[in-house]
Every structure is written in C-alpha cells, then in structure tokens.
Amino acid sequence: MMAVAFLGLGNMGGPMAANLVKAGEKVLGYDPVPEAAASAAEAGVSIVDSPAAAVAEAQVVLTMLPSGKHVLDLYRDIVALAQPDTLFLDCSTIEVADARAAAELAVAAGHQAVDAPVSGGVVGAAAGTLTFMVGGRSEAFIAAEPYLHRMGAKFVHCGDSGAGQAAKICNNMILGVSMIAVSEAFALGQALGLTDQALFDVASTASGQCWALTTNCPVPGPVPASPANRGYQGGFASGLMLKDLRLSQAAAEAADVRTALGKHATDRYAEFVAEDGPGRDFSAIVTTLRENGTA
Ligand code: NAD
Q: What span is annotated as the signal peptide, if there is one (predicted)?
C-alpha cells in the first residue's frame, strides 16, 4: 500500500493527519518538534526520522507548514526523491508567489501539485470539517479530492496554481476589515448609550450582518459560542489574522492593487498584536477600540 507523507504535524497538521489515519490511509509523518511527532504517533501516524524517509514510499506528499520559506526549502530537498507523478498537496497558508514557485518545482520534477489552504481552524481540522481552497490544474484537483474529502467538508477549485492562496487571503482580508468595522460599531454604539444586545438584534438582521457579527461576535452576550464569552481563548488567533493580512498586502503590492482598508486593517492588527500578544482571538481587538477609540 502506497502511503501519504505528512510533513508538519503541528496544531493543524496533527489532527488532519489523524483523520487520514482514521479513513484507513497509511500515513508516514515527520515533524522536527518531538512533541508534535509524539502526539501524531498517538493518533496512529507512523513517524519517520526525515522528510526523505516519508516521501520515498508515498504517492501523496502533504505539507502543513508555517511559511512559504518552509515550503520552498522543503520542496527543494524532496521533489527529486519522490516517486514519479507524486501528488504534492500544500495546505499551508503562504504567499501566492511562493505557492506558484512551489508548484513549479514539483511539476518540473515530474509531479502534480496543488495549493490547498484551509479555513476552519484547529476545531475544523479535528472534526474533519475544513474548507479547502484549491489552486492547480484540473487533473491535480481531481487527484487531490479524495484526500481533501477525508480531512474536510468543502472544496472549491479556484483556478490554477496560487488561486487557492489568493482566495484564502482575499477572504481573510474581508474578515479582518469586517471585524474592525463591527468592533468600531460596538464602540460607537456603547458611547451613544446602545446596549450590545440592541445593536446586535438590529444589525444581525439588517444590512450590517456578516460573519464577524453573527458568528464571531466580538462582545460577550449576543452569540454565546463566540470567543468573546470565554476570554477570547480558543478562536482564530490575532497573530494568524495578522499573518494573513500581511500576505494580502504583499500580494496587493505585487499586483499593484490599492487595498486601503486591507492596509489599515493590517496596521491596526500589527499594533494590536504588539500590545496584546498574538494568542487571543482576533475579535479581542474590540477591547482596545473601546478603551481608546482609535482605529
Ligand atoms: P504550527 O506551528 O502548529 O505547525 C507547523 C508545524 O510545522 C510545526 O510543528 C513545525 O515543527 C513543523 N515544521 C517546520 N518545518 C518543518 C519541516 N521542514 N518538515 C516538517 N515539519 C516542519 O502551525 P499550525 O497552526 O498548524 O499552522 C500551519 C499552517 O496552517 C500555517 O501556514 C497557518 O497559517 C495555517 N492555518 C492555521 C490555522 C490555525 O487556526 N492554526 C487556520 C488556518 C490555516
């Protein structure tokens, strides 16, 4: 039985690899951090001692890594070691240009490649309900689908190489901007004497409604499941939001597109992360807006 090589068994990769094991795949995993490797081993992943050892027997190479540099460095090391026509499936969130460069490396070595960044966070990774935004040729997308199906609930083929990353950063730019807009509205509403519930009851059923308000409401109360009700723990970390906003701005600069609100959101999240640290849910930005009225 050919295996799936899974490189990067961190917060996201660990549970994604576990879901492949649950679906009956033989998964050969590698991560340089012993704790990450050990917890994947508990979920049934066979841990090997190098990326090369994982790739040699695999028909699919999955990566879930921190940055484009990690992905490119690794691809440079392993594309020549893989079996011919291996599917390289990178699920990391990285720059569009890096995703295209990674796919070119894989294709030039005789393989198929897709970028397939995800939305759904650690909870979606564990539950197998991730959404994948996929970039690559149609044949590669079709080859990737069964594996994506085992780790997620929804897949959109967005176009050629890099299109998955493009969709991901455009979506998250909307999210960063809309979270600031919703947070400013709660700050202004409070100053004008509105209760949070009254503003929510109107805006959530009127033209102000959006995911940042109705699912991830930044103030405690109106949406009991939102991270605001648990001290902003366990959501989408503001450090990751900042990473994605920076990727959107790098892409906007490269494409010579003016994204003024995206830039503003990037600056605000950079300030917020510098003050608050990267760990709390990104909706915690409302706390600074209410304290000093900036943004
Ligand atoms: P993480 O830091 O928990 O995991 C990354 C893992 O990659 C680490 O365990 C690290 O040791 C490992 N690694 C580094 N170099 C490696 C190499 N050469 N070979 C094998 N493993 C290597 O990060 P994460 O939260 O799992 O995020 C991974 C990617 O998913 C990032 O690109 C992130 O932006 C994206 N993402 C994260 C979330 C989330 O909620 N955490 C949501 C969507 C997308």
A: none
